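P.,

For your records, the input lines for the assembly:
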Amino acid sequence: MNVFALLRWSYKEGLRSSAKYSTISSFQGSESRKYVPRRAVLYVPGSDERKLQKIPSLGADCIVLDCEDGVALSRKNEARSKIRHLLQSREIDFSGKDCSVRVNSVESGLCEEDLREVLSASHLPDTLHLPKVESPDHLDWFADKLKSTLRSHKTAEKMRLIIFTESAMSLLKLPAICQRGIELSEETPFVLDGVVFGSDDFCADIGATRTNEAKELLYARQYVVMVAKAFKLQAIDLVYIDYKDLEGLRIQSEEGAGMGFTGKQVIHPGQVEVVQAAFSPKPQKVEWARELVQAFEDHQQQGKGAFTFRGHMIDMPLLLQARNIIQMASVTSK
Amino acid sequence: MNVFALLRWSYKEGLRSSAKYSTISSFQGSESRKYVPRRAVLYVPGSDERKLQKIPSLGADCIVLDCEDGVALSRKNEARSKIRHLLQSREIDFSGKDCSVRVNSVESGLCEEDLREVLSASHLPDTLHLPKVESPDHLDWFADKLKSTLRSHKTAEKMRLIIFTESAMSLLKLPAICQRGIELSEETPFVLDGVVFGSDDFCADIGATRTNEAKELLYARQYVVMVAKAFKLQAIDLVYIDYKDLEGLRIQSEEGAGMGFTGKQVIHPGQVEVVQAAFSPKPQKVEWARELVQAFEDHQQQGKGAFTFRGHMIDMPLLLQARNIIQMASVTSK
Amino acid sequence: MNVFALLRWSYKEGLRSSAKYSTISSFQGSESRKYVPRRAVLYVPGSDERKLQKIPSLGADCIVLDCEDGVALSRKNEARSKIRHLLQSREIDFSGKDCSVRVNSVESGLCEEDLREVLSASHLPDTLHLPKVESPDHLDWFADKLKSTLRSHKTAEKMRLIIFTESAMSLLKLPAICQRGIELSEETPFVLDGVVFGSDDFCADIGATRTNEAKELLYARQYVVMVAKAFKLQAIDLVYIDYKDLEGLRIQSEEGAGMGFTGKQVIHPGQVEVVQAAFSPKPQKVEWARELVQAFEDHQQQGKGAFTFRGHMIDMPLLLQARNIIQMASVTSK
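Structure tokens returned:
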């Protein structure tokens, strides 16, 4: 058995044997899905025409047209119809960006109307963001509504789904929520792609007081990363509130990237550059990844059994990590 | 639908839809239950007459008449009978304080006798503290014994129950323990009201070494807060052992309050003032809460759909948080 | 009931009542099993003759003859046969050390061949190390293969089993994995004895970046300790990569010991001394333990009901902790 066969075998068996969470395999297996970088996740209120017009100049990987917290209750209809128009007309250029929409939560009573109006445009967003997911049931409800909303829609590609965890109970149930999201991805118009840690609602829920250093959130942040990564999902870190303090933002962004987060929410366009730099792969990491993949391909052709690289045995997780880094580097470099 | 209806709907639906933990709703729903502050939780050995007589001068929110660790095995009977006498005679004034009793653990073999003796007084304590809860089964056992003990008792009001989590296995099972406690609150003479983190036994169990900075307990503390708050329970932080170091106590108390703990155990009357200050709502927070509730009531009367306050959309969790702060402020201010 | 009876009762009842995890009792109950210290866990590649010959001079408590990451794919057979020869011939003196073998993971496709070859020696290793345990199923598979491999083997004593947790999903499932390991210990040729935190693979899996301070792993480390200790297992901490930085190693080792880890992986013989010092019981702790056990035995003989020591009520966990410290001290002192 050559190294390629071995690694491939190891990879497949690994997935097959992951018992309870067996549905991951087919999800992960779909190598056709490309990685969508979301280093900076920037919200633009759907009701704010001035801000919507600025989208082409915003450098964030992921632009979120917001129906939720950024929009007053009295202006929900306005937001929906502006977002619908924007999707329909294609007046605004999203090229190279993840064009996404945040609907209101399942419990708000506003979500169904959001879906009906926004998704009646002939062009769908790339990604949907669902806030305040409290239980697997919320995803069942959402999948159901999404299916019936899109019944008459011809969709070429599934939309990605990003879910928010923003309360103590939601964190407690996060493994079950992700598991259900992966299962539903098989049979619904969405594919679960990431988890956002909504720290402000979480702090309000547990009665914590936010600090810039965020020591009070250390467990919650590392736990969210662990659960998200266990299901091969992106993990989006908390907002840095003090948007004028770019040095504090840099420190927190690099810390989050070091913990394993793949991106970070931003509340101001001025935060984008610092954040995206922190979540971009470092040049020496990219070089390492390119050389590793090259070495792997060389060994595969020669049919050699042994495969070490820079003194380390190379296994499938490392190879996958290297490929992600290369893809991330190619997508995020201008 | 006006804002009030919407928020109310959102709140109720939220509870109803929280699937597995559905029993929370009726528990939470009982708005008649008032918030009992327990900023400082002070133990007084039931066998120590001199300390018992000092109770009126102790400023702690919560006075715990102790049958457990503060009482030698040879003096358990003495402690029970002194506590019984104290409850029966009402000689000591507990006004404004949570009058509570800590019995011995389910596994000690002493708990049933504690209940039988202490609760034979015609006046019951406000709150019972149950140490070393290791599994949901312990609560079943305790509920059972409590019911049979109180069979002939005319109780106007349920007692509150505070449980202690003090071992690795107890923390591992804490979500299931809290869930069972909430369920049992429906049908037994207690209402689960809080969780105490017993750090000394926990450290002995996992072989950790206590430091004043308590970095070795960072995960355990933040996890206990998260689980307790997921079930809308109070969370009581660890003891600061070095009772002469008031500055260290202040730092740890403020850190605990910042993490979301609602109070802290104290081992010396000299610790009460520092601790209660740290767990009291800050004046500007109280002002914010009062103005928010006022704004909510104004909007409700005018039937306006939109509701923002100081630039933020106001939702039900924030409104509830504001009400708790006001209640806490009114109860704790002298 | 004298103190001994009470403590014994309390201990037994405690185990019996720990409901779901009831199989722990018989496991824990076997007081015949002695504590095997593994303060420093040192890997020696099975394929490296030069390093194998150095074993007698290596001071580490636990020597791991490695078939896994330390051995290139092309040299797996060589490693297996060298390890087999070493066990068979008893040429190398392991006295006072835990003689153990790390096989390849269940998912590697190499594990069965490792077992067949290595365990065909007439002398078995004391301990087996199983890397990359991702689910309880892995342990079922491993128990099955081990049983059939040893069918014709006359084994006087069970081998100990150390499992590695090295991915996000593995950590998420760690309670279930440990529970299954304890259950399988009843009926298989292994007894689960410890958990190793494999931080490098974990970091690769979650995309974290290792730092010497390891703040990015604070949650994972403390969680692994808590789960391991909930099942009364040893917990082995991460490798300190920079093997020339002995001061950094000392700090991290003492931090790990303070968190409750019982030992630490080392990658270089030069790390052993610092690590073993950090994980050895401090002299004043040993003195405390000896006096406590003496006091306990005195009280037991006198049949006294009360039992306090240095101002603290003594319960069974403290007594057990004291005995472990004494045993550790006697085993680890030269």
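Two observations worth noting. The CA atoms of residues 283 and 329 of chain C lie 9 Å apart. Residues 33-280 of chain C form a domain with the TIM Barrel fold (CATH 3.20.20.60).

Regards
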